[in-house]
Design brief:
The protein has 13 helices and ten strands. The chain is of the alpha/beta class and 302 residues long.
Length: 302
Amino acid sequence: MMFTIAIPTYNNCDVIRSAVESCISQDFTMDYEVLVVNNHCTDKTQEILNDYDGKIRVVINPMTVTPAENHNICLREAKGDYLVFCHSDDRLLPDALTKFHQIIERRGFPKKYVLWGRSMYRDFYYNWRKTGLQLDQICSGPDCFKAFFAGGLAPTGTCYSRKSFLDAGGFIYVQHRVAPIDMIVLWRLVLRHFEFEMTGHIFFIREFASTVVELATKEWLNSAVEAVERFLKIIPDHERSLFINYVRNSDTNNFETYLAFMKTGLVSRGYMLRNLLAYMAHKPLNILNLNCWKLLGKIIAW
């Protein structure tokens, strides 16, 4: 089977029906499955899912697990070679699988691959092009780190080569409620020789994101530090050395993430100051940018 569409859900009875309908209504002509992992919901989610008996496959967790683990259950339970996530508050476009298949076929059905597209909400293209990457262009190797230092991909609407993603460890659990898990997951996939592609297609509709939380700078930094520390702890020594070497030898304007690197000891205060001053000097108007001066104050204070 080429594709599994996975819907990890927890108490989303008000929106789950539209998500399921969008998944079972694909115009894709080959076999695919829709897998829903019910994270021990306590609302009417399962009653709604029962209406789709025979059209979807449902796994019910005996107890509620973390979102990261629920996504990993999707990875383990799925039968498709490629896994596309659709969160309960999103909808796939009817031709999503057809477009995914066309691109994957053109690439020769890669075994270590992540593919995603544009979005009307929280679009990743800003981060992608800031790194000098183009749409419909494969990125691999250490260059990918820079793209993902600015943030990660939300799983919904993203297509993963399932077995290699699972073999790489899947989604990473971090205790902080809003830690940037998606970012460190992608760092690990870069180290495992995955290829990444952002295409100009739109695969899904996201009208809002229930997980978006506005954080104070200090809280965001604490969550990022915890994520970085967790990442460094779970990767083997040789991968840790490669990652640290790249971090310390790269120019950056992703200063927020590098603040977390500074707090974890990966880069020095001097490194941060040199890069920030070079960034401000590159364009004279940056000297008038209040955020640059606030960042300078944080580097000195922290």
